[in-house]
């Protein structure tokens, strides 16, 4: 047997053994959290800008959101979830920082049709000085594909500007239907 053939056999054996060893660790691992796969939540990305008084872009906002608000049938549901993480960066690429929106409590919902729903509530917003609780927050789902999030800017020192933060509903096969 030639040395080249032995090296090829050794390399193939190592490759196959490594693959079996590696996949044995992955059998219970999932890259996406199980609650997302099990349809417990819908989720998506967000983007926005903050402008100065002259309309010039000062900050770029981007992030991710998740919710189970599509499963509620009343405002008394204590397991309502709407969470969002927002990265903010100045328009010159400096001063990057992150905020979170958590602890969303639903006060009311308004359904104008089966595909246009407004969730009005309160949330906690993380800020540099610490969390700001009970911030008025409106989550608006439009045509089951677009989401807008608007926070009371006065409660967070106008930190996010006056424009909504927009996002895309990634799970298009599901529709928001409130019973």
Write a concise keyword list for the protein shown above:
44% strand; 2 domains; 16% helix; 8-stranded antiparallel β-barrel; globular; alpha+beta; 179 residues
Percent strand: 35-45%
**Based on DSSP secondary structure assignment, what is the total number of beta strands?**
8
- Radius of gyration (CA) equals 23 Å
Strand order of the largest sheet: 1-2-3-4-5-6-7-8
What is the mean predicted local confidence, pLDDT? 78
Give the H and E element order: HHEEEEEEEE
Shape: globular
**Tally of individual helices:** 2
Give the termini distance in whole angstroms: 74 Å
Low-pLDDT regions: 19-31
- Number of structural domains: 2
Largest sheet report: 8 strands, antiparallel, barrel
Structural description of this entry:
The protein is of the alpha+beta class and 179 residues long. The chain is built from two helices and eight strands. It has two domains: 1-31; 40-168.
Q: How are the secondary structure elements laid out?
A:
Layout: H1 3-26, H2 34-37, E1 42-51, E2 57-67, E3 82-90, E4 97-113, E5 116-125, E6 132-142, E7 146-151, E8 165-168
Antiparallel strand pairs: 1-2, 1-8, 2-3, 3-4, 4-5, 5-6, 6-7, 7-8
Brief account:
The protein is an alpha+beta fold and 179 residues long. Helix content is 16%, strand content 44%. An 8-stranded antiparallel beta barrel has the order 1-2-3-4-5-6-7-8.
């Amino acid at each position: 047997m030639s040395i080249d053939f032995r090296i090829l056999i050794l390399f193939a054996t190592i490759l196959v053994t490594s693959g079996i060893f590696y996949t044995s660790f992955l059998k219970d691992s999932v890259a996406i959290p199980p609650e997302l796969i099990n349809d417990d939540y819908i989720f998506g990305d967000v983007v926005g800008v903050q402008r100065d008084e002259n309309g010039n872009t000062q900050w770029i906002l981007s992030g991710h959101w998740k919710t189970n608000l599509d499963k509620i049938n009343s405002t008394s549901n204590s397991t309502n979830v709407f969470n969002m993480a927002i990265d903010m960066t100045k328009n010159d690429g400096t001063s990057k920082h992150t905020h979170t929106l958590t602890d969303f409590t639903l006060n009311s919902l308004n359904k104008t049709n089966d595909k246009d729903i407004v969730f009005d509530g309160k949330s906690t917003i993380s800020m540099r000085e610490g969390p700001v609780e009970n911030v008025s927050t409106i989550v608006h789902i439009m045509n089951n594909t677009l989401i807008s999030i608007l926070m009371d800017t006065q409660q967070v020192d106008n930190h996010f500007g006056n424009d909504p933060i927009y996002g895309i509903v990634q799970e298009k096969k599901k529709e928001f239907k409130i019973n």
